[in-house]
Write a structure and sequence with these properties.
Length: 169
């Protein structure tokens, strides 16, 4: 009798282990998919952003052809400003003078980006109506806000499509 109880307890303890192992493999596969979904793809981002701008600002094909080269040029210059120097120096968090210098450098960088935007917004108004430029600005803000919101939110695994079986008549 003691032997049977010991055998049952041993089986109960050993049987859940393979099931847990399968779950961890499933978690690894799901985690891999989640990582793939969260990877940033710059080309995809640019395509979706431009499609959103065209749709939201109601750009004609001719307006889009004149607008997007200017817009891409502006983005390239903005990136160059951002990449010039990382203004947040770690030492500045413990030294008031260094912190003040970092704050001023950060503000200068932000001001130069705003000046660049102002310069390009004036050029945008020359290639399309100001109402569409305003719609573009709002569309770009909304798009980027949604991208950041979706990027930070964990996504559930996508359901697999079910095969279609025609009904027999």
């Amino acid at each position: 009798m003691k032997y049977i109880i010991t055998l049952i307890l041993a089986l109960v303890m050993v049987l859940p282990l393979p099931a847990q192992n399968n779950d961890s493999r499933q978690d690894e596969r799901t985690e891999g998919r989640r990582d793939e979904q969260k990877k940033f793809d710059p080309e995809r981002y640019q395509r979706e952003l431009e499609a959103c701008i065209i749709r939201e600002a109601c750009l004609t094909k001719q307006e889009a052809q004149r607008f997007f080269p200017l817009y891409r040029e502006m983005l390239k210059k903005q990136r160059a400003i951002y990449m010039k120097k990382n203004v947040f120096d770690k030492a500045a968090y413990n030294d008031n003078k260094a912190a003040e210098a970092v704050i001023l450098a950060y503000d200068e960088r932000e001001l130069s980006i705003k000046k660049l935007q102002l310069q390009y917004h004036k050029q945008f108004i020359k290639v399309m109506p100001a109402t569409k430029v305003l719609k573009f600005i709002r569309a770009e803000e909304r798009f980027n806000r949604n991208v950041m919101r979706n990027f930070s939110r964990p996504r559930p695994p996508q359901p697999q499509p079910q095969p279609h079986h025609p009904r027999n008549k």
